[in-house]
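Re: the request from the purification team.
They wanted to know what the chain is likely to look like in 3D before they choose a buffer screen. I agreed to run a prediction and write the result into the notebook, where they can find it.
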Amino acid sequence: MSLPDLLVIGVPKAGTGSLFAYLAQHPDVCASSEKETGYFTAASPDGRSRPVADYERFFAHRQQERYAMEATPAYCYGGPRVRAAIRETLGAPRLLLILREPAERLWSAYTFQRSLGHLPPEVRSFAAYVTACERERVVHPDIHDQGFLKGLSIGMYGAFVPPWVTEFPDLLRVLFFDDLRADPHAVVSDVCRWLGIDREIAATFSYDARNPTVHPRSLAAARGAATARSLGHRLLGRAPGIRRGLRDAYMRLNRGSIGERPSTETLAHLAELHAPSNLATAEALRALGVGRLPGWLDGAEVASGG
């Protein structure tokens, strides 16, 4: 039986795809056949997941690598049942959690969901997206019920980072998106040191950015493509080559740019919303022993009025 002992647990839109791709180049790391297996996000109400054989198939190609790794960003906010299922199934896996300044992460989430045509037609700007996310948090307090409008809730790290710190203190490594963007080799080398595997070989890795968002020329076309993807997944589930061809053709036809930028007013509003959560996150990370926090966390006490 081969199960992972290294999980990239989040957060979404903070470089998890890049981190997974970088570490997958290490000869002592066996990457899952699919980056996001989503195995634990399917934890049932009593905390149990799908048959473990469903999980093993993602690592059937493992040979003598020291670690088997997968990356499902939704694990980070999965709640106590997901954490319990991970512990029950995997025992003591190493966990990598990468955080990004919440407003910047939210902008990335907005442009990503916009590019996929997932947002309601009335959400035509970042400010409208923030308002829609705020409203969704009131109507559906549980993040799992917020659909494509959970972006604001995901950035409230104070709601889910402290439990990971408390339950997996010796197994959790917290990284920061700014560091990964500025010097990916240094971050990966440090992760290799933490894992106890050769860090020198990290100098030979490719550090190209992964999964960049491609902005649509037409939002209406993007929404139509989202519907077509859903239908195509059911009809062409066994023809990934055809699906990829259709996707590439759509990208060529509807590739555009985004002229919008977050307004000063919206960013100020988000700073106020995020301040208490950032403070709770900073306190949890200091308790974990994280010595150097990025500015948006290091100044959290001042920003929250503490």
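For the purification team: The chain has two domains: 6-101+156-210+277-300, 104-154+212-254.
Please add any questions underneath this entry.
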